[in-house]
């Protein structure tokens, strides 16, 4: 089994234990504290919210959907955890599909190097390494390295234990306990081709909020401050000055919505907003933008595979791309109506806008910037990207028959229609 000495810990910045102190903070800083503070954050609790199954589910022994849901309910009651990830519920088949996608696309003339951001219980890493050991050419497994970048010390230790169950994996696997969004933790730029895996990571990255008073008003960034002599937290709206918020707005094109209107439409919009004023709130994935910027800087030849929710039902919080804020205790889930209710004891997870993810990915790779100054009529993209729903991804790269019950019901394909896979590969891989 791997030794804990392979963990490298870089302490993240600390926030006030009251989250919002004497100075106002941006919404993303509040969310980062609530989820990742090393002492009080949701993902830093010793018990850990992520479940680990002792053995794989034998779907072909279950009669159908009712039997599967009953089996799943019993699992949650036995483990008393917040959730099981898809890679855990459908192990090893979910990770095997990812491994096959990597094998088909990777440049196997160089050693295979994989990074996983937020590796959870370590199941994905172990199953991918199992697949490479059994199915890839021997030189691929013998020369590969797999690095997990994990912010939670308790999950980092669990990953070492999980992967260490196979002795030969241990020399090829390591955990770096740090925040992947911090550029310093990556050291120097690594020019070798590599793969980056992010499963259910994007949904927990910090977001910001921008607000406008009505349809014709400019966007303002949202800050949080504490009232004097009170613990009550309130939102404060300021002109856009934060670099990440401003960059996100420009990538989406929100800055051009009003600028590109002709005088007639602008006048009509102004009149309409005065008669029927409608405040607007939009959640911006600034944490995702920051992570992509760092990854493209540190790993300029990376290929990326990410999977996450494209839609979340029954969201009670206002705003486009608003999150679910949920607490689970004693097997009962409670959804909150305000993100400010999350104080380290609640999950905060967002739907992923895959159209926006692609735009940010291209922007951070430098391609979007080259487009602005290019004189070529047909500039070449730096990356090839594709978004597939989970069913299509598994039909292409996985073995769907392995997660099918006796009557033909397939929970991976039938129950995860709100999740998608995003693949982004440098164009030089296809030369």
TrEMBL record:
<dbReference type="GO" id="GO:0035243">
    <property type="term" value="F:protein-arginine omega-N symmetric methyltransferase activity"/>
</dbReference>
<keyword id="KW-0489">Methyltransferase</keyword>
<keyword id="KW-0808">Transferase</keyword>
<dbReference type="Pfam" id="PF02636">
    <property type="entry name" value="Methyltransf_28"/>
</dbReference>
<dbReference type="GO" id="GO:0005739">
    <property type="term" value="C:mitochondrion"/>
</dbReference>
<comment type="function">
    <text>Arginine methyltransferase involved in the assembly or stability of mitochondrial NADH:ubiquinone oxidoreductase complex (complex I).</text>
</comment>
<dbReference type="InterPro" id="IPR038375">
    <property type="entry name" value="NDUFAF7_sf"/>
</dbReference>
<protein>
    <recommendedName>
        <fullName>Protein arginine methyltransferase NDUFAF7</fullName>
        <ecNumber>2.1.1.320</ecNumber>
    </recommendedName>
</protein>
<dbReference type="InterPro" id="IPR029063">
    <property type="entry name" value="SAM-dependent_MTases_sf"/>
</dbReference>
<dbReference type="InterPro" id="IPR003788">
    <property type="entry name" value="NDUFAF7"/>
</dbReference>
<dbReference type="GO" id="GO:0032259">
    <property type="term" value="P:methylation"/>
</dbReference>
<keyword id="KW-0496">Mitochondrion</keyword>
<comment type="similarity">
    <text>Belongs to the NDUFAF7 family.</text>
</comment>
